[in-house]
Amino acid sequence: MTAEETISAGVQVTLLIAFICVRSSSVWTDYSAYSYFEVVTLCDLIMILAFYLVHLFRIHRVLTCISWPLSELLHYLIGTLLLLVASIVAASKSYSQSGLVAGAIFGFVATFLCMVSVWLSYKISCVPQAADGPPGKSSIQMVSSSPKWAEAASPGASVRHPHPDTNGRARVPEAAPGRTDQ
To answer: Which residues have C-beta within 8 Å of that of residue 176, sequence separation ≥ 6?
Structure first.
């Protein structure tokens, strides 16, 4: 399991526990606040399960018209904000009822895990991924600074440098040092 799948499973478990704690509480001090908490936890739980099934059955490979990382990022952003508001409201209206306090605490834990998921989704979908190689170098820098690029060409073939010279023409690099077969 990857870190994202582990966190997603943790969010699902904590949301389920929060829902059960609030639902099984015998005394509700504010019906509308806890109904809102139940709706938010259930909707968030269903959406996380839907994204989990999309990745499990590889539906994201079939439906390529949807940007799945971006949609997952938006889901986690909206769900995290709604869950944070619901947890704050549930905590403020609990009046020391143990089931309601436990539900609010698990709501805050699920909010924290959702924030971690938002960060991971942002890292995956919005931050450009670097190519393999030393940190701090882009793939173009690595290709152009590699000492083996001239040796990879067959003898007599011209290797074009990706950057043009001042006249707009592509530069043909000089032969590698030590090579005399031109």
So the answer is: 147, 150, 151
Which has more pLDDT, 146 or 67?
67
Q: What is the 3-state secondary structure (H, E, C) of 100-116?
A: HHHHHHHHHHHHHHHHH
**Strand runs labelled E in 15-67:** none
- Give pLDDT tens digits for 68-98: 888 888 888 999 999 999 999 989 988 878 8
Q: How far apart are CA 55 and CA 61, in angstroms?
A: 9
SS3 call for 168? coil
**Residue 171 in tokens:** 């530069």
> Per-residue pLDDT tens for 155-180?
454 444 455 555 555 555 555 565 55
The one-letter amino acid code at 167 reads: N
For residue range 108-120, list pLDDT tens digits in order: 999 999 899 888 8
Structure-token match 């949807």, residue found = 66
Question: What b/e string do you get for 10-26 counting C-beta neighbours within 10 Å, with b at 16 or more?
Answer: bbbebbebbbebbeebe
Q: Which of 22, 89, 88, 82 is nearest to 47 (CA)?
A: 82
From CA 134, how far away is CA 139, in angstroms rounded?
10
- Residue 15 — very low, low, confident or very high, per pLDDT cuts 50/70/90? very high
Q: What are the sequence ranges of the domains in the chain?
A: 3-125, 131-176
> Greatest CA separation found in the chain?
89
